[in-house]
Design goal:
The chain is mainly beta and 259 residues long. It is 14% helix and 53% strand. The longest helix has 35 residues, at 224-258.
């Protein structure tokens, strides 16, 4: 069976230090999702996870999540990530993450954007994940970057502080590993990018990590039998030609001898 969850989030501008987030879940697969739970990943707000339970096919579920500011907020945008966790009928766990932006009083657009280079992972091997930061502003900015991953992936570091010069581009490299992802699956990854002056600015960069089949060092490459067969034919032809030449030479020698 297949479980295909879709999440949609609606937020209101927060005029005080608390507010509500509306979350909608739907399953368009052909198998129910079990032990469904949604929670928020955030450094600036506190909230309680919502236990959905079983989410049947084509039966949407809607809920509200209360958020309360844990810090003294400046006006601006704040990144929040919605984490959805569930299991299949066999109890195998899955997770996914979705980007959310909460605005406190007034929105202020970030001048720093991030772009991921999508990668493929195999087995438990690690691979470099590159996040490119571009500063479109006329001034330098000291930026806090946080990598947010689904439960199936892991990284050597998740947070980085970096100075990005005016009209400059910088790179951050994370070493990503497949912790529990299934072959053939694709996972959304996110990075929150924040800085502030009199106001708070943020953006969320998104990318994709695909889990592919790993190569087995003990197994023969698919092209090796073809190469082996080709070499065998070449050797056989050379052997036949060599013996034919030798035979002709001997016969001509005998005829000359008789004369």
């Amino acid at each position: 069976g297949t479980i295909s969850l879709t999440t949609s989030v609606t937020t209101d501008v927060l005029s005080k230090n608390q507010g509500q987030i509306q979350v909608s879940l739907s399953n368009s697969g052909d198998e129910s999702a079990y032990n469904v739970q949604v929670s928020l990943i955030t450094d600036n707000f506190s909230s309680q996870p919502v236990h959905v339970g079983t989410l049947d096919v084509n039966k949407p579920y809607e809920t509200e999540m209360s958020v309360v500011a844990t810090n003294n907020l400046k006006e601006g945008n704040y990144p929040v990530v919605l984490l959805t966790e569930y299991t299949d009928a066999n109890g195998y766990p899955f997770s996914s993450i979705s980007p959310v932006t909460l605005t406190y009083k007034n929105p202020y657009s970030s001048r720093i954007n991030g772009i991921f280079e999508n990668i493929e992972l195999s087995e438990k091997r690690s691979k470099n994940l590159v996040l490119k930061l571009k500063n479109m502003d006329q001034v330098d900015h000291n930026v806090d970057v946080k990598l947010i991953l689904p439960n199936e992936l892991s990284s050597d570091i998740t947070e980085k502080n970096i100075n990005v010069g005016s009209k400059k581009e910088e790179e951050i490299i994370f070493k990503i590993s497949n912790f529990a992802g299934l072959e053939g699956s694709s996972y959304v990854i996110l990075a929150s990018i924040e800085y502030e002056d009199d106001y708070h600015y943020s953006s969320l960069a998104s990318g994709m990590v695909r889990i592919v089949e790993g190569s087995n060092v003990l197994s023969l490459p698919k092209w090796l039998p073809i190469v082996g067969l080709t070499l065998s034919i070449i050797i056989l032809v050379f052997y036949l030609l060599k013996n034919k030449i030798n035979f002709k030479f001997i016969r001509e020698k005998n005829e000359n001898f008789k004369e």
